[in-house]
Amino acid sequence: MADPKQEQRDRFRAEDPASGPMTTDQGVTVDHTDDSLQAGERGPTLMEDFHFREKITRFDHERIPERVVHARGAGAYGYFQPYQSCAEFTRAAFLQDPSVKTPVFVRFSTVQGPRGSADTVRDVRGFATKFYTSEGNYDLVGNNFPVFFIQDGIKFPDFVHAVKPEPHNDIPTGASAHDTLWDFVSLQPETLHTIMWLMSDRAIPRSYRMMQGFGVHTFRFVNARGQGTFVKFHWKPKLGVHSLVWDEAQEAQGRDPDFNRRDLWDTIEAGAYPEWELGVQLVPESEEHDFDFDLLDATKIIPEEQVPVQPIGRMVLNRNPDNFFAETEQVAFHTANVVPGIDFTNDPLLQARNFSYLDTQLLRLGGPNFAQIPVNRPVAPVRNNQRDGFHQDEIHRGTNYFPNSLGGGCPALADPDDPAFRHYTERVDGRKIRRRSPSFADHYTQTAMFWHSMADWEQKHIVDAFRFELGKVGAKEVRARTVEQLSYVDHALAVAVAEGIGVPAPQERPNTPQPTPSPALSLENNRGDGSISTRQIAVLVSDGVDAAQTIAVRDALTEGGAIVELIAPQDGTVQDKDGSTLAVDRALPTVASVLYDAVLLPPGGLDSGNAAADDAALRFVRSAYRHGKPIGALGASVDKLADMLPDELRTAAEGDSTVTESGIVTDRLSAGATAQDFTGAFTEAVAAHRHWSRPALPS
Fold first, then answer.
1. Record's PANTHER family (predicted)?
2. Within 10 Å of residue 273's Cβ, how many Cβ atoms?
């Protein structure tokens, strides 16, 4: 039988009108489209690169009106406050005075899908922060990965076209598991480091509030003396870095496609304000070339063990927007929105973004006056001679040119002694060339470092993710080529992936990297401050429940900051063992275990007398167990829980009281014990988030 996908590919090649050499829109033949024109191999991108500008401009204008990428987002207002003055490194005013709170707006987003896609897809997440500083707006436009897929911005249209839905059928939405993305990856080994992050649990965050953020690029701090220091930016969530697992992420897409944005909105409305710490990695300019990678390469990180992250301040989000369109949808970020004391480097991806963002906003927001939209408006005064244009809201008076005498010479230039923005003085020379610096050439060492830094369970999830993604790829040659690329990272990884997708295992490479692991990369080492603040805990109740014990444990967990919901077979109330009623929060058919961080079975919680309801409750518990979530049981519910546990855990659970490393916490409440005696151990299990050491459930 003919392969329909192969026939489709053959037909595409035969009918493709662009079968000759690549050209610009003006018909000029192009012989290189992988590197921007720059002054020397590590120099800045040149404005005269008409091919780069045309390619980016055409890409930026492809969609109206939603963003081409990062279309689905959620935002919130808050403030940033430095811990101490950073004057030694930067003159930026908002990083000087610990008593000053700078207003911020943050937008979190997915990348691939449109506005109507789901939150819990496997994807990179945007983490963009607008600081409304006294010196003007500063935008830290980052992601939840510290690295990016490509090294030069001229490749950005190619990457996004590859990861977006396939052009012939516009499938899949919000997903990277398809032929064109993996075809691109298999041919561009520079993507592998970020692909490894994408295949990890980092790509499916439990919450925006439990997600790291990174500036990705190497920027430059400049102090009042004009001295420069290279800087990498890190956002670290106070609650720790926590993720979903793939099958619960997929179920959550059906149960609640707004899972992450609803979580952010609800917790801010409840007053449980999310918080992040801003940290920096600082590298003196004299040490720029001391690493075995290039600081200007956006596909590389500086391992924290080499250059520790120094905390410099905290950010709290404490207010939801009033109108999604006016604020979250119209907010405009731009990597070139910097303030005195923060400047750029010659990173070719950053140089491209500094052009691309403004160009995009001119189209999306209807012209050059988008900075007058309230969410984009700086708190610093705006004085210039720029006039008119689409959507002009200001009523200007006086002259509109400089220099002038009729307007009193206003607005005048800043005095040389005033703290105006001045670009960092840096020598730039070199031949005009399209060539990647040889210092960007190693695509495998840091990819291998990430892999070897993962805990066993994280590595298993990565292998499973590769198998799922590549299993959706129809072109066997793309599958095989991707596995070949993985063999340059780690042979065991490549073999494990190959076994799951039906391609031959690759040969072992003699020079596979064996880098020093970076423990800071593992989720095992990013669990947070040990609190259970905002953790969602489901308490399963039914008629006959011990209401007193249930209320006692609920109140104790709530006092610790958790969000506790009583879930029953039906809405309304249940009757407790003494005949009184207990109000419930949700009905079991409307929720699922994937929407909660832990589950608790109070005395009588699984004794509704309704076999179907009890079976649904047990499925709820089994799902929580399979996903490594903490499970607690009290009183007679211990026996119900023990019946479903593997033999290794059943014996312990059947004892009087037990706390296991597997996150199973039980207490029979014998000898006059109360639920209060149980909550400390259960709180500890919930704070750990996941427990992957537990044995598999019996079939």
1. CATALASE, CATALASE-B
2. 16
Residue 301 pLDDT exceeds 70: yes
> Of 153, 162, 154, 149, nearest to 192 (Cα)?
149
pTM of the model: 0.91
Question: Taking residues 351-379, what's their average pLDDT?
Answer: 91
Helix or strand run (H / E) with residue 179: helix 179-187
- Check whether 198 has a pLDDT greater than 90: yes
- Cα separation, 478 vs 186, whole angstroms: 7
Segment 41-57, tens digit of pLDDT:
899 988 878 788 878 87
Identify the architecture of domain 443-525 in CATH. Up-down Bundle (1.20)
- Domain ranges for the chain: 43-376, 443-525, 536-687
Would you state the structure tokens that stand for residue 242, as one six-digit string?
Answer: 């926590």
Q: How far, in Å, CA of 136 to CA of 131, rounded?
A: 8
Check if the beta carbon of residue 333 is closer than 8 Å to that of residue 353.
no
172: left (phi over 0), alpha (psi -120 to 50) or beta: beta
Indicate which residues carry an active-site annotation.
70, 143
Q: How far apart are CA 105 and CA 354, in angstroms?
A: 20
Q: For residue range 534-588, what is the model confidence (pLDDT) as tens digits?
A: 999 999 999 999 998 899 999 999 999 999 999 999 999 999 888 899 999 999 9
CA of 135: how far to CAs of 26, 224, 284, 375, in Å?
Answer: 42, 15, 25, 17
The band of 640, judged by pLDDT with boundaries at 50, 70 and 90, is confident
| Alpha-carbon radius of gyration of the chain | 28
Domain spanning 536-687, CATH architecture:
3-Layer(aba) Sandwich (3.40)
